[in-house]
Every structure is written in C-alpha cells, then in structure tokens.
Amino acid sequence: MTDRQRYLFGDLLRQWRMSRRVPQLELASAADVSARHLSFLETGRSAPSRTMVLKLADHLDVPLRERNQLLLAAGFAPTYGESSLEGERMTMVRSALRQVLAATEPYPALAVDRHWNLVDANAAVAAFTRDAPEDLLVSPFNVLKFSLDPRGLGGRIINLGQWRTHLFERLDRQIRVTGDPQLTSLLAELKAFPAPDTDEEDAQMSGDVAVYMRLRADDQELSFLSTVTTFGTPLDVTVDELSVESFYPADDKTAEYLRRLLP
C-alpha cells in the first residue's frame, strides 16, 4: 500500500465517520482497536487490512458501492459485484421484483435504482402516467423528475408543495447516506421546477398521520400513502441500490377508482 493510498483511505474513512456523527472512540471500540490506531488509519500513518476496512464500513453503514471505493483506496480489490439486472445471475432478483410489483395490484408500485430511474413497474402505474406527453415517458425515466414536472405528475398533484418538500427531504437523507454527487445534481434539478404556495396545504395536513399524495384524476381527488421496500442483506451493488415504492389508497374512493382502472 502506497503512502498516497493510505492518505486517500484515511480521508474517506474520516469523511464517513463524520457524516455519520460517530465519535472516534465509538468506532474504535466497535472495530476492536485502540482510538490511537484508528487515528493513525485516518491520518495515513497506518494501513488497514481488508477485514478492518469492511468492519469499519459495516459499523458506519456505508453503502456497498462506497465500500468498494474504500477497499480500492486501501489498495484492495472490490468485494461486491455490480451485476446487470438483465443478466442470468439476477434471474431470481427479477422474479422477486416482479412478484412484489404484481402482488401490489390494483395499486401502483414501481422499482427504481439509486438515482430514481425506473427499473420496472406494474400495470396500475398507468394511474400516474396516463395522458402524459410521450417525451416525458422515454428511457431513462426518472420518477422524481416526472413527479414534479408540471407536464407530468406535478401538474396533477393537488398538494404539490407538501409532496415536493417530502421528496426533497427524502433525497437529502439519501445524499447524506451515500454522498453521491449525482443525487446532489438531481436535487438541484428538482428544485428548479415551479414551487406552489404551501400555506393552505400545511393547514390541511394538521390532522394527518403521514404525508399523502393527493392527485387529480378524471375530476376526482385521489389520495395515496406510499411505502418503500428494499432487499435485505444484499451482496451485490445493483441489488443494494434497488427499491420498490408502492402507493396504497388512503381512502375508499381511491381504492374503488384503482380497482376500476385495471380490467
């Protein structure tokens, strides 16, 4: 391991520890090393073993893509593969994904990657995409951009201010977790979309238990509560970055509308 690699690893480790707000002593205890040794790792005075890199990354809950970066910075080969979702190795993952999406019908559900690009969706997502301009539906289809674009879902969401704030908070948390600059750029793009006055929406929200998406459809107001599902204990970067967002009806009127939407 070269001096440059030690310093690079140490800088990355310190950045992750500080972003997680973990004291040096706490991390040292979790890794079963002295605080002095951890300090030497962060300053480049000591070189870590592969086991130590993975142990520190695990305690700091570093995403798999960034764990590979830590390993490379320390002079080791990446541990976690990044498979194409269409490859043979991912057959079971694709099958599980489609079962989850199909089981959610007649309610909308979609799978996205780390950057919120659409991976797959069930037929009920037509409740969101119907009547949208064709140029908004081309690949890569970014669901966050579509949801705030006035020509997309943004033109139909009644409580757009609330939903916009909700999405920004979620994306900001994801940026803090991953440190991904592409997500930072995405957040800047989203903030460029028109922002409505939220005073009236905030008043309507006072008795709610969660943020609902209230959507205009066929002269009706639909109300959705979203949930997010991820794969447990992933060992592949692609799987680690997949998530499924399902939209369940928040009232009987919405449930009935969705049941009538699918044949």
TrEMBL record:
Is DNA-binding set as a keyword in this record? yes
Entry GO MF terms: DNA binding
Protein name (Swiss-Prot/TrEMBL): DNA-binding XRE family transcriptional regulator
Query: Sorted alphabetically, which PROSITE patterns does this protein's record hold?
Result: HTH_CROC1
Q: Where is the HTH cro/C1-type domain?
A: 13-67
Q: Which superkingdom, per the lineage? A: Bacteria
Q: Does the keyword DNA-binding apply?
A: yes
Q: Which PANTHER family match?
A: BLL4672 PROTEIN-RELATED, BLL5781 PROTEIN
A Pfam family of the record is: HTH_31
Tell me the InterPro entries matching this sequence: Cro/C1-type_HTH (IPR001387), Lambda_DNA-bd_dom_sf (IPR010982), MLTR_LBD (IPR041413)
Keywords of this entry: DNA-binding
Spell out the SMART domains in the cross-references. HTH_XRE
